[in-house]
Amino acid sequence: MDSIHLIGYFGALIVGLVLGLIGGGGSILTVPLLVYLLAYNPIVATAYSLFVVGVTSLVGTYQKYKKGLVDFEIGLAFSFPSFLAVYLSRRFLVPNIPEILLTFGNFQLTKDITIMVFFAFIMLFAAISMIKSKKNLKPGTEKQAYYKTFLQGITIGAITGLIGAGGGFLYVPALVLWANIPMKKAVGTSLIIVAINSLIGFLGDVQTLDIEWAFLLAFTTISVLGILIGGYFSKFVSAKKLKKSFGYFVLIMAAYIIYRELL
């Protein structure tokens, strides 16, 4: 095993630890880790990220379920349109995006650059979501019509499919504001949505990519180990403070990706 893969496995442990400590956000590190440290192209990196996110979210779902913090009925209602969008985007949209989208003089806007820059902007939104206090976020007064839930699921699912991250930071406010469930249960419920979306989205990639299973399974196993360790230590640290600090770190990473890809 070379030093690059060792660094990658250490990164996988960090991803799991963050997920275990703050309940989300760690998966957003997976794509930059695979692209910039392990030199995978963004298409493969986002595919691998979906698998890692899906498996670790399943573990997180079980942890939350034991605490009574998962609403499966609402989670599955959101999941159906989402996983359709994730699967279709990974199976048909991503493979058919042109390799070169635009040319400006000597600069070419390639498929890989576009995906990474879009990913960086989603990271910016995620960072702001982690930094801002959500204590004023309260359940709505009535449940929204299902067609609105369907449209939200389609939109978030398409984003998940493109960037290979779970989209939990998008689902949590949607579940609180429109599904009328408390914040803690919204976090737990978002995990089952993310798990279903990510794993079904990955099935679309299995049909179009050659998967390096030995590495992917090892990386995922270490991430799961990290989430278990992080879940244990979360009893002794302030998740709120950690989440805000991690949000600033993600903000810096997003700025770095935009700088590296465009400048």
TrEMBL record:
A Pfam family per the record: TauE
Sections of the chain in a coiled coil: none
Signal sequence extent: none
Keywords per UniProt: Cell membrane, Membrane, Transmembrane, Transmembrane helix
Predominant localisation class: membrane
Transmembrane parts of this sequence: 7-37, 43-62, 74-93, 113-131, 151-174, 213-233, 245-262
Localization of this protein: Cell membrane; Membrane
GO cellular component: plasma membrane
Membrane protein topology class: Multi-pass membrane protein
Family: Belongs to the 4-toluene sulfonate uptake permease (TSUP) (TC 2.A.102) family.
Protein name stated in the entry: Probable membrane transporter protein
Species for this entry: Pseudotamlana haliotis
